[in-house]
Structure formats: C-alpha cells, structure tokens
Design goal:
The chain is of the alpha/beta class. The chain has 5 helices and 4 strands; from the N terminus they run E-H-E-H-E-H-E-H-H. A 4-stranded parallel β-sheet has the order 2-1-3-4. The two termini are about 20 Å apart.
Length: about 150
C-alpha cells in the first residue's frame, strides 16, 4: 500500500512521518512525503533527531506534492492543520484522505524541541506499528479509510 504524508512545507512533520514509517512498517507501506508549498529544505532539527534515533535520513528532501502524480498513493495523510484544509491536486482524487494533526516541533523554542520531537515520534510509531500489523489483503476502501482515521486519535 502506498502512503503519502503531506504537510504544507514538507520540512518537519511529514518528513518525520515518512522516515519513521519506513523504519517501523517492515515494508508493509511504500511511503513518501510532500508539501503543497515545500520549503525546499528539510528542517535541520528534524534530520538531527532522526540521526540520533538511528533512522535513515540521507534521501529525505522537501518536495512538492506535484512530483507524486505518478506515485498514485492509496492513502494521503495530512499531518498539519493547514494542509488538511487545502485543495488537493486533481490526481489525488482517487486517494483516500485522512488527517493526523500533529504539533510542529520546529516552531518551538530550541530548548523545547527535543521533547516535542520525541512526543511526535512516539505518536507516529504507535500509529504506524498498529497499521503495519493489519492484513490489508481483504480490506475495502471504506475499511482502509476507517482504520487509518481510527489512528488519528491515538
């Protein structure tokens, strides 16, 4: 199953989600991240956090969701509130859409960022581990939507 994590600037939360999902899903999901208005650079604190966690980050970059029309994600997961309210490109029409609102560690004072990165990562790990344990072979689109949406409150 293909997942696309979206945040407006694709510099922190969606990057975290992509990297953590790759590390935690055991290959269940093919995952990418993108932004509607990408910053063009990943927030350095995000890369530092991932490196400290031993999570691969060398191929992560801030990129536009326009680059993923050929990727054809099954599920698009917005991780910031502003991206959740934006009009999605037409090519996303058949993708299921789910919102997992997450706080942005990069917006906090530097002294508070470490705890915030740990909190966001813990939430993502819990959600991704739960979803990775599901047998997706017999699930309908409605089932998939429900199971991903169910994780938004975890």
């Amino acid at each position: 199953m293909k997942l696309l994590f979206v945040c407006t600037h694709n510099r922190c939360r969606s990057i975290l989600a992509e990297a953590i999902c790759r590390a935690e899903s055991g290959g269940v999901f093919e995952v990418r991240s993108a932004g509607s208005q990408p910053a063009g650079v990943v927030y350095p604190g995000t890369l530092n956090f991932l490196q400290q966690q031993g999570i691969r980050s060398d191929d992560l970059r801030s990129q536009s969701w326009d680059e993923f029309a050929d990727f054809a994600p099954d599920v698009v997961i917005t991780v910031c509130d502003s991206a959740a309210g934006e009009a999605c490109p037409l090519w996303m029409g058949s993708s299921l859409k789910v919102h997992w609102g997450l706080p942005d560690p990069s917006k906090l004072p530097e002294a508070e960022q470490s705890a915030a990165f740990n909190q966001v990562a813990a939430v993502l790990r819990e959600r991704i581990r739960a979803l990775s344990a599901i047998d997706w072979s017999d699930k309908t689109a409605a089932d998939i939507q429900h199971l991903f949406q169910q994780q938004s409150g975890v």
